[in-house]
Structure formats: C-alpha cells, structure tokens
C-alpha cells in the first residue's frame, strides 16, 4: 500500500469515484460523510492524508473540521476540495495548515500529483523530526544542590534571549546538557541543534567542517559539503571545547559572528546565516587570552552570558540522585540498589572525571550484577591510597583551604547519606553537636534534606 487516505465529503458519488481512483493506485481508503464522522475516522484509522470537502451541510464545514483536526494535533496532510470556494476560504485553509486547495470537478491527474506531493512532504517532516531527535543530546540535569539550582536559574534567564552563552566547567560535568537546555528553552527550540566538538576536528579540516566547501576546493573534495553553521541556520550551534580552536579558525569564526555571513571553501559568494551560538570549554579562556592563545575580541563575542557548571565534588549531595538515575537508565526494570555504605564510599572519591566518570563506575558496578551494591564493591572499583576526598595529582598541590573544605564536605555528605539525611544522626556519627554541624553545612552549602 502507498498510504492510507480518508475522503470526507457529503456527496456519496464523490466519495465513491475518488475512492475508486485511489484504490486503483494502491492506496488504502476510508470514507466519512461529514465533519463529526471525519474526526472519529481520523482517531480510528490515523490516515496519512485527508481529502476534505469545504461545504458539508448540515454539520460542521470543512474549515471547522480542519480547525478541529489541528486542535487535536492531527498530523495528516489535509487537501481541501470545493466547487464554490472563495479566495478568503483558500487563505483561511492555508492558515490552518491545509496542504492544497483543489477546485471541483476534480481531475484524476491533479488528485494524484497533489496526493503524492503531500505524502512526500509528510515523510520529509517525519525524517527531519527523527533526525533532530537523534542529534539532540540524551539526558537531563539531575540534582537539587544549590550550585545546580543556580545553573538552572541562569538557563531560565538566558534561554528566551538571543544572547551568546559560554558554558565553563571541568570535563565530564555535562556542559552539552546545559547547551541543549538553553536551546530547548529558546524560541529556536523547533529548529536544528547542531553540535561540533572542536577538539575532535583535525586542524586542517576545521574550516571545511564549520563552513563547508565546494567540489574541487582542495584535494579530496569530490562533493560539495554543507558546514555546521549552515546546518544550524535558524537554530543553535554548540561549539564544544572552543578553547581548542587554532588562532586561524578563531579569526574566521569571529568574522562570521560579526557579519552573519560565511563563505564555503572554494566558493565565490557569501551565504547569510542566522545562528545562535552556545560555546563550552574546560579551559580558562581569560588565561588563554593573556597567554595569546585565544583572541580577546572573540572571547568577548562568545562570553556574553557565562554559565559555570560546578564539578561533582562541589555538589556531592546530588550523588545519590545521580547514582539512582544512572542505575535506572542501565537496568530500567530492576535497577541495582546501592547501600548507604556504598554511597558514602563514593562520596569520598575525588571524581576528577565528574559525572561522566560516575556514570562509568555505576555501569561497571551494574555489570557485576551485585544487588545491593555494597561498600566493598565500590572500594574495589575505586582504589585510592587513603580515605580522603582529595587525591593529590603528581606535581599539582591544591590550596590547603580547598583541600580541607573538600575533605570536610566528603565526611559530612558520607555521614548524612548513612544517616538517611537526618542531621541529628549525622552529628552522632561525626561525634559533634547538631548546632556545630549545621554551621559547617551552611558554610559548605550543604542541605541534609536533599539527601
């Protein structure tokens, strides 16, 4: 079958002749004599296309029926038919999303050509939706810590605007999720969200990847290539690890941001693009500007609204929720449980790989099949030289105050986790009084009820 078609017309002869033509062409056909019957038939049969008559007394008109279909989010292609249509009717039908308006008497050729075009458009739209869904990053920001709530508030503030956003944070903190949240909260949400990992592109291919090239522009360019900027036209372009771009690539990016135009390699004419830029980096770009490895003018262009994503060690109170989330994603039917001891042991780890490292560890523990996951399981998975929240890398000494804060935060989170979030129980485990523990928690930004 070529597809399913619903014919809605109060004249039985029209339904019969049109139905015979479409069935002969391999279409599956359903019929309805009026607007009310059409709504029921659409719900039952989910047609790919609908031929809808304009006037169907005594029930609702074709335009009224079309409006009802759109209110119910019916995605079928609608082709209007009438022998007494006025220009205002055609305009209104178009505004309501009708694909075409055919004048009666209907010619077989115009019917079939219009139907094929309508179905091709439906298929293209479906493929575009599937492609955008596949290109969108999977996941969400998990946690209720003060640091993450601050990030959520900043996303809510900047998303409706057209401001360029720079997301900073260590590797593995989830910067792409922040970029996707900015896109989905903007007016561009239904337009493309295109991602480029600047660190993964060979230097000699950066310009081709970003701006595209014409056939024959260089050796090996056998076909025209559309660059990421063009693919993101009307939507959002996310440049991950922008700090890894060469100075030459930075200059070309700056020119495109300033002019709103790009030029494919080997092309003679420029192309105008309308793209919102969201960038991310795990580097200190201000330091890179001072060192001369990143252009100052480009930095000011991309960092209109900076968002800092805190590392996992600064939001350890989110760790139980993150573990639960990753475990449920890996084994939806019966996710493994983690004992308070296992979570406490996790809270003493430095997590230099942040959320990405945590997800990998949870996956490895889930593969082992232990349920519940015990403290010893985690201890074997996270070998460390000492039970401290800070593991000092060779040649890198953290500030003493930061190291002590990390150690204290890890101990308190471990005690709160083991005590089910009850501050009184955590104070008992830490052999201190509740008032002292509350003061320390406030200073470190910890809240026991969130565990």
Average pLDDT level: 84
Beta content: 5-15%
Order of strands, main sheet, comes to 2-1-3-4-5
Tell the overall outline: extended
SS content category: alpha/beta
Report the helical percentage. Answer: 40-55%
Give the beta-strand count: 14
Label this structure with key terms:
451 residues; alpha/beta; 5-stranded parallel β-sheet; 19 helices; 13% strand
Task: Characterise this structure.
The chain is α/β, with parallel strands linked by helices and 451 residues long. 47% of the residues lie in helices and 13% in strands. It has 19 helices and 14 strands. Strands 2-1-3-4-5 form a 5-stranded parallel β-sheet, with helices on both faces. It has a 5-stranded parallel β-sheet with strand order 7-10-13-6-14. A hairpin with an 8-residue loop joins β11 and β12. The protein is extended. It starts with a strand and ends in a 7-residue tail after the last helix. About 3% of the residues have low confidence.
Produce the secondary structure layout.
Layout: E1 4-8, H1 12-24, E2 28-32, H2 35-45, E3 49-53, H3 62-71, E4 77-82, H4 87-95, E5 100-103, H5 108-135, H6 146-158, E6 165-168, H7 175-184, E7 193-197, H8 206-211, E8 212-213, E9 225-226, H9 228-231, E10 236-240, H10 247-259, E11 261-262, E12 271-272, E13 276-281, H11 285-291, H12 296-302, E14 305-308, H13 319-330, H14 340-347, H15 354-368, H16 375-381, H17 400-418, H18 423-429, H19 434-444
Parallel strand pairs: 1-2, 1-3, 3-4, 4-5, 6-13, 6-14, 7-10, 10-13
Antiparallel strand pairs: 8-9, 11-12
Helix pairs in contact: 2-3, 13-15, 14-16, 14-17, 17-18
